[in-house]
Amino acid sequence: MLNRYPLWKYLLILLVLVVGVLYALPNLYPADPAVQISGASGSDTVTATDMKQARAALDDAGIGVQSSSLDNNTGLIRLRDGDKQLQARDVISDALGQDFVAALNLADSTPGWLRAIGAQPMKLGLDLRGGVHFLLQVDMDAALQQRLDVNASAMRETLRNERIRYRDNQVEDRSIRFTFASEEDLEQAEQLFRQQYDNFNFEQSQQGRAQTLTMSLTQQAVSDIQDYAVNQNLTTLRNRVNELGVSEPLVQRQGPSRIVVELPGIQDTAEAKRVVGATANLEFRLEAAGDTPAEEQESFRFRNDSSRSAALQKDVIITGDRVSSASTSFDQNGRPQVNINLDGAGGSKMTRISRDNIGRNMAVLYIQHKSRTRTVMEDGEQVEQRDTYTTRRIISLATIQSTLGNQFRITGLDSPTEARELSLLLRSGSLAAPIYFAQERTIGPSLGQQNIDRGIMSVLVGAALLLVFMVIRYKAFGLIANAALTINLTLLIAAMSLLGATLTLPGIAGIVLTLGMAVDANVLIYERIREELRGRASVQQAIHNGYDRAFTSILDANITTLLVAVILFSIGSGPVKGFAVTLSLGIITSVFTGVFVSRAITNLTIGGKPLKKLWI
């Protein structure tokens, strides 16, 4: 019989609709405005007493609190009124003091029974949810300097192992310079270095009796080091942001030396800087021995006790980028420690150095690159000038008790929280070069809500116009098309929620476009049915031919559009990708609802009935 589906096909379509409704439902529960409370540093934790103090301060200020919770030393206070969010943050900050950071947040309000089946609302992008946008500048000169310092350290070790004496060693102007007492020592050193370092240009010179060997980086080496620095920093920042649990962050390269970081849902710039601001590196060095020459050692203070200091050798054993993984545990005395795993090259060098220095102290040096902005006068105008500086502090100084391999531990930490922070820093990777905040921008929750309201309004207006047009144009079949259009929108939202896609303003534009394209399939089908009726076909035969013969055209048109969407996603930036995602999913749901769902509705309502006239 014409226009009848088998039972299994109806059941399959019904199952898809039920699943779509379930996974679209969480989007009806908007996130609650909230204030998140965390410690200003790794050693500061939030307690139940602090939460009571914060709630009491909010009550005194007349700010309604919906609920509060404490999880993993982080407090969350949900508010009744989103307009009071900024005021609540300031009240909590004043009440708890500088040892705590109060940051604006949006807390998920999805019912537990939906979360139990994995149903979550769509993630919102920075332009809809609000948050912070950072433009980070990678210090290319420092990247080159760090690489030269590492190479110079390795060269000095090579000369000592080969018993080749040198007078002086300097690193400057993208080059390494060694001064020797004799030409014979210079020739031996150059021969060794040429075998090990093919990224340098070598030049000999003579000043009096001193023989100087200058090794300058080639232009290709400079480009490779700078490119590696940006890519390594990009990976490190992604790891750190992901491990810190920021929802749907964006970390991507912009140009040759800049990185963009966007953190949706975070409204406090200071808090966001603390999340991504661990722009530090680690160095493992031996403590200077009593016979270490003064020019080969440096003195550093301890991070947690500035009154203490220790002299370390200039030579770096390894840096933090050689750490492949790190975890926290406790030693036999119940004190926190960090367990380290090194990569192959780092493990080999650590084994060699530790084997020859059992009984000596090894320090972990925490290097942090910072910047401060000051206003200066230039040509009678006030301009902002950024000054960069670096702090170096010892976080651990322990005795090498046995030969260390690619696994060892760092002890001497003050608290489990500090151990977790250090393990996170090591696990996520160290920066290959310092980075500085070149630009920062905050998108407030009110602007994000305004974008959401306008986006929803655009979807509603577009859908309403389509619904009215289809009813006027195609009568009863227009109602079927409208039902399919509503189901299409539901399935699109469910698919984006289920896949964890991020909705942005361009994504909303993609939804609006999808709605317009969704009715194209029905228009093709219904116009084909009209042609069949004009050709004297029976009602049921016209419906059957209309759906069957229009399907090829519908498929061809949507495949070409889908290919364009895939290309946009593969080569586009963030906003373009958001548009491409919604467009791609919308094409798939449009074909499903426009062809199969609408035909199922048609079959159930008029399929197989002896109709002599069709209102279309």
Give a topology summary.
Elements: H1 7-24, E1 32-39, H2 48-60, E2 65-71, E3 74-79, H3 85-96, E4 100-107, H4 112-116, E5 123-124, H5 126-129, E6 131-138, H6 140-161, E7 168-172, E8 175-180, H7 183-196, E9 200-207, E10 210-217, H8 219-243, E11 250-254, E12 258-264, H9 269-276, E13 280-286, E14 297-302, E15 309-313, E16 318-319, E17 323-330, E18 336-342, H10 344-355, E19 361-378, E20 381-399, E21 407-410, H11 416-428, E22 435-443, H12 445-499, E23 502-503, H13 505-534, H14 539-571, H15 574-606
Parallel strand pairs: 5-23, 14-20
Antiparallel strand pairs: 1-3, 1-4, 2-3, 6-12, 6-22, 7-8, 8-10, 9-10, 11-12, 13-16, 13-19, 14-15, 17-18, 18-21, 19-20
Helix pairs in contact: 1-12, 2-3, 6-8, 8-11, 12-13, 12-15, 13-14, 13-15, 14-15
Helical content (DSSP H or I, runs of 4+): 40-55%
| Beta-strand percentage range | 25-35%
Instruction: Evaluate the radius of gyration.
Output: 33 Å
What is the CATH class of the largest domain? Mainly Alpha
Number of helices: 15
The CATH fourth-level homologous superfamily of the largest domain: Multidrug efflux transporter AcrB transmembrane domain
How many β-strand stretches?
Answer: 23
Low-confidence stretches: none
- Write down the overall mean pLDDT: 82
Give the tally of structural domains. Answer: 4
